[in-house]
Amino acid sequence: MLSFILLFICLNCKNYNENNLSDMLNGDWKNNFIVHTPYGRENHELSFTFLDTICSNYSNGRYANFIIKDSILTIKHKFYTYKRYKRGGEIYQYKLDNINKKSFQVTPLSINAKKTFYNQSRKFTKVNTINNYRFKHIGFYCNQCYGSCPSLYLEISESGEILFKGIKYTEMNGLYFGKLDKDILDLINKKINYINWSDLDESYSSSQTDLQTCKIRILLDNNTEINCRIYGRGKEPFEIHYLFHFLKESYKFTKLEKDSLLQSEFKFKDLAIQRYPPVPPPPKPIIIEK
Fold it and tell me: What structural domains and CATH numbers belong to the chain?
């Protein structure tokens, strides 16, 4: 009888945990590891972001729907089209173990997941806030990379007004405005507080080529102005990419209305006019004299 009671309790605990995994996983998670390459030791970071019914399994990807069944996490990225190019549609699967409020273990199952995890199980830890700031105004710009990185500019006020300029590889191109809910503003403030802004340099750069450049300007509630430019991945704190990632996706959390005259409304006009560098002209043909 005692064995039956214990088995009943364990089964109920398992069902309770699985039914509440989404709530427990909400937030940002990270894993750091060293990879040995022909160029030496390189520090790599992996990340997960969970937000109710959507998530991302890398810090620069579009959010996607996910399901968890029998501790198997399945993420299916949407197809999206830019001109004649069709991208997306990848499926990632992972086995989740030892889940608690501070960490969980992830084992990659699908081919795509194994590639990003170097075919190894990884432990992820929760990213926590270290400050208690709130922003008054944000300007954020990112440009195109060699692939399909979104190129956009946006500004967000403390009351939630968002001005958006989609340039390339965004779900809408042109000038739009809208208003973000308080829940979204709270998430932006939370990600701002992952970072020790007083120790942040104004510029970071990677030695690699064809990567994305991001620029951000934040007016905080203590009247401090933050300016930072990051090209690719360098020595900047990894936590800043959770903020960048969420800002790139933020315009999708509200209904936007088009306004072709919006350009004059931007507060940070020097950021708003940023564009990715123009394509250089082709080299002149080499003429060989006979």
Answer: 2-126 (2.40.128), 135-272 (3.30.1560)
